[in-house]
Structures are given as C-alpha cells and as structure tokens.
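Each record in this resource describes a single protein on a pair of labelled lines. With that in mind, the following record should read easily:

===
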Amino acid sequence: MRGASLAELVKDGEAALQNGYEVLKDHLPYDAKVNIRLFHELRQSFGDQVGLMHDAALTQYTYEEALKVGRALEAEEFIWLEEPLPDRQLENYVRLTDALDIPVAGAETLMHDPELSALWLRSGAVDVLRVNGRHGTTPVLKLAHFAEMHNATVETNTYGPLFGLVHAHQNCGIGNIRWFETSPPFDGASMGEEIGMMNPAVPRDGWVSYPDSPGWGADWDWKQFEKKRVATL
C-alpha cells in the first residue's frame, strides 16, 4: 500500500483488492506509537477477510518497540512483521522471534550471501527468510530446503529477475513459499511491458502463474525492441 495518510493507504489498498489481490503490505514510516494506532485503523478499514503485513523498513524500532509492535500486530491478526530491526542485530532478532507468536521476516539486506542467510535460519533469528532470484536461483532453492529443516519459510523479495517470471517459476515450484510480492503500478510487469515483454507475471484473482514455454518462458515483442533501438554497432 502506498500513501502518506490513512485515507490514501485505504484507497490504494482497495484498488489492489479490486484487481484481485488478497494480501496488502504497509511500509508505515512513523514511530511505534503512531504505527500501532494505524494498524488498528487499517484492520478496521479492511475487515477480517483481508490479509495484512507490516514492513518496518522505513522506520527504526528499538527492541522494546519492536516487541510492542509485534504484540499489536498479533492482536490485529497481521500475517507477519518484516524487518523490525536492523539486520546487524542478530541477537535481538533471535530474542524477538522467540518472544513473538507472529512470524518475523527478515535478512533482506543479506540476500546476496546464502551462508549468512543460512546462519540466520540456524540461529532462529527469523521465521520467514527473504530471498531473491537475482542472487541465483540455486541458492534460493537450497535455502528453501534448509529453511524447511528449521520449520521456517522463504519468501521472494519483490518481483525479482526477468520482471517477475523467475519468481513466478520459483514460487510455484517451491513448497515453502507462500506469496508473490509485487507493487503495481511500478512493478516488474509494467517495466517488462515497457521494453516489450508480452507475458509478464501478473497476479489474477489472487494467483500468479508461470509460462510453460522453453527457458523462463519470456515472450518478446521484437517490433517494440526496434522502436526502442538507438543505434546498431
């Protein structure tokens, strides 16, 4: 959800729901007290049937604040609490994940390093490990299997490589991935279409599918490439 006010957030969220989305994620940038109030107002606005997530990447909670935020999210039945602390605070993540019932998602800034990501899983620092296919599809698969051994899940971060097609394949093929993350209108689908992709990964009625043609299945409008070409070497 995008917006600088509750009204704007609700308007953006309602537009997403009308387009078939079933889960909404906020990036509220305010302090813990204000955000906790807004969690309640968002739940009141959308009702119990809409999935909600909180991504704290735009704010900085202390451990004590993150614990309060997590409790508030549990009361409002949010799906997860994402990036509540800086990733350098591994020990505090372990404490927080152990103390809360709501799943804690994190390690987004460590996605480039499978060994560090695995350390977080072994330490019990997260329930949900963020991954991205742009750092390699094989590491994502390995981390997914490793997470399964530690009663955790992995979730692909934003649309990923090839304007969403790689993540669509991974999300449909890996058992402990639940969500396909995208953020229209500035997402992989729109960027892919801009340069001539004819079949970007677009969720429809709450689901995303993948092309079954060779490779990743990308279908290109070569005439669009010609229009965009500025020189031939």
Summary: Residues 108-228 form a domain with the TIM Barrel fold (CATH 3.20.20.120). The CA atoms of residues 84 and 210 lie 32 Å apart. The chain has a mean pLDDT of 94.
